[in-house]
Amino acid sequence: MTSEPAERSSARAAIIGVGLLIAAWMLWSLRSVLLLVGFAALLAFALDPLVAMIERVRTPWGRVRRAVAAAVVMVCLVAAGGWVLISVLPRLASELAHFVEGAPASLDRLLLGVRVFAVERGMGAWLGPLGGDSPMDAAEILRRSGGALMSTVGTIFGSIGHLIGLALVPMLAFYLLAEREAVEVSALGFVPEEARPRAQQVIQAIDRALRSYVRGQAVVCATMGILVAILLALLGLPVPALLGTVVALAEVIPILGFWTASLAVVLAGWGARPELALYGWLAYLIVNQVVNLLVTPRVMGRHMKLHPFVVTVSILAGGALLGAAGAVLALPLAATVQSVVSEFAPRRPAEVAPVDAMES
To answer: How many helices (DSSP H) and strands (DSSP E) are in the chain?
Structure first.
């Protein structure tokens, strides 16, 4: 008699296990689409305060509708992106070409000064291949570093390139901003009636996690941008405020953001003096490492209730699985999972006060 229920239980467990494996396989197969939706959700949560601010504006016809506010924000965002593509990128390409043309001669002068400084102080052996009887010249250094950099950038873009229709991110973000409730109702239409209350709890948990992530990331970006801008201003680099803004925005994208900000700092300093480019890049490198090791784990951990160890491991795991895109989405995904699990975790019963205390 007891064997039949046991067999049913085993069969049910086997079916659930197979179902979970199939679901995991489907999610992995659709990872490019999920990444696309993830970026759209992050963009929507990042722009939501601006939409809410415009929505509160009073006009002769009443307050601005949310759809109109979302459209205004997205149009401004797309216009800003178009302005960057039309105005900023050509100038950056020109500066980069000028930099590449004069880099070998300037780097040779810089290396000569470093060798003389090191030899005079008995530190010539510390230079390795840069010193010795046949030191590595600027052309060789640029060839090796350029090849390594292009390989890294190629790997990064190769991991992002499979994201189909990146141009759809603003459109999906607009839908989430303008018609969030309608999107939620439509999504719940695919959930059985009896499971919808739990699905709504999951949506609320995801909402809390993503809002916490956006707040924490804003603090980290602001910290990085302000510190770098101050140091670059003290060093005498041109446009330190603009460079600080570039660094703050680049902080959102691991790896690729670092190289983009490094290129901006080097190009800005190189126009004045090659040594200034080196000093500026070293200052940015030091701030980047200090913030990523000390500030980011603690700030993100406090806002998202994640331990710094979990924050660091999440970023490493996301980058290893899905490259730069995975590293960007690793923290919000970890925070979302933790928030959903906490939502359905059994609550501990309140401790019963001692009888003597109650009587007193």
So the answer is: 14, 2
